[in-house]
Amino acid sequence: MMDFFISYTNADKDWAEWIAWQLEAAGYTTIIQAWDFRPGQRFIESMQQAITSSERTIAVLSDAYLSATYTHAEWQDAFARDPRGLHGMLLPVRVKSCQPTGLMRQLVYIDIVELDEKAATNTLLAGINRGRAKPSASPRFPGAASQTPVAKPGFPGPIALNNPFQMAGALPANAKSYVKRQGDTELVTLIEDKPLIVLYGEYEIGKSSLLVQAYSILQSKRGWRVIIQDVGRIRPDNERIFIDEFFSLISGVLGPVRTWEELMIGLREQGLILLLDEFGALSPEVANAFLPRLHWLAEESRRSLRVVVTIPEPIRTFLRSRHVTNPKFSRGWASVRLTSLDAQGIDTLMRLLPEPAYEIAVRHRSTVFELSRDIRARFNVYALIFLTKCSPESRKINSLA
């Protein structure tokens, strides 16, 4: 039995993933569609399994969530199991300004709207606690001025750009904890003359971070405009909305574009590099409508268009999984396979650890390499925190964690 199922709508995917990460970092287990529903699975069966195998449900509240149709079934199951709210089976977390109605209005929600990351993390973890909300230190005396100290929060503040404990996700272009790999050079080289490029590798191996680095470099390329987009955020499950959002994205750079033909005309005047992250989020419906036209456009405009997509598997495997059966759409792709950092790269990241965390990590080197998948995948040493917390020496770095 998992601790939490995270119910959300695609518009709030970034919030849902952030919440899931905080919970798992605190020792809870979660099920979240973005991480646990994999290609080839049946969506309805996966959703049913997720709901019934989780003790509690977190509803990520926003106007988009409240107006969505399918989310009602997700949270109403938890409500039905605990209609009086005695066991906290349904925990709404408000992430954007909205006003719940109906049954949802009866529930007290965890409100993290407009909080910074430190305050939001504290509020979230305090809200899911089934115990009383009694503070760990005496409240400030409400009468005359008091010098009673308040308890120091035990959570880190907002993550700085160069914090070596940066959580999963794409690192900023200027993050010192980014370590280049062979794929960096291969990608920038291929963009010079290849219209279609697929960047593939395991989940969380660092594809998004590499795209961010490439975007930073390519912006200075004369005669070219560069767009970077996580396609998972523009309704990859709805053909009409996805295509409309795609053209809207292009229009912001090339001027009004409503059709593929208009886009091809625009490319006669302006070079365009499209960095399309999370391309694996495309549903079969959207993939069959979008990929053939994108392939056609890249072939017809090969001098002025570059398309880079990120997926977890080779392009042929991806196309088969999306039922794109015409073999011509698998041709013409240049491939960059992103692999894990080598030992030297791990060394570079470990040196970012402040003392005495670095000393502990070095002494536990074998354990570090057992965790190397996490470390390599996230381009940082966040996983080392868990190693050092498990160590008898962990008291030395509590203030760093």
From TrEMBL:
Gene3D superfamilies: Toll/interleukin-1 receptor homology (TIR) domain. InterPro entries: P-loop_NTPase, TIR_dom, Toll_tir_struct_dom_sf. Residues 1-127 form the TIR domain. Signal peptide: none annotated. GO terms for biological process: signal transduction. This is TIR domain-containing protein. It comes from Candidatus Entotheonella gemina.
